[in-house]
Specification:
about 90 residues; mainly alpha
């Protein structure tokens, strides 16, 4: 479930309102979806943001990922971690 405290955390102190809008929309859409569905939505929103020239900072991403993993099983958390590692490796190659 969406943690409404996210925008109040230090990492989001000076967040672009467009990024905050994406963040709110993404978490609302995620609701109680399983890990695979959350990953799919995360990729989808990442592509939308990229098309608009937006990107979350490393600190913002860290908070988002920790929030995504709330209430997941250890297996689901590992799956998200593996996907994020793969994404990071792909981004480093570009």
């Amino acid at each position: 479930m969406y943690n409404s405290n996210i925008p109040n955390q230090e990492a989001f102190k000076n967040i672009d309102p467009r990024k905050l809008s994406f963040l709110n929309e993404m978490f609302q859409e995620m609701g109680t979806k399983n890990a695979e569905q959350k990953i799919q939505l995360l990729f989808s929103y990442g592509m939308k943001m990229k098309q608009m020239g937006l990107q979350f900072t490393d600190d913002e991403t860290k908070v988002i990922m920790e929030t995504l993993k709330d209430n997941l099983t250890p297996e689901e958390k590992n799956k998200i971690d593996m996907m994020m590692n793969m994404m990071n490796m792909m981004n480093q190659q570009n």
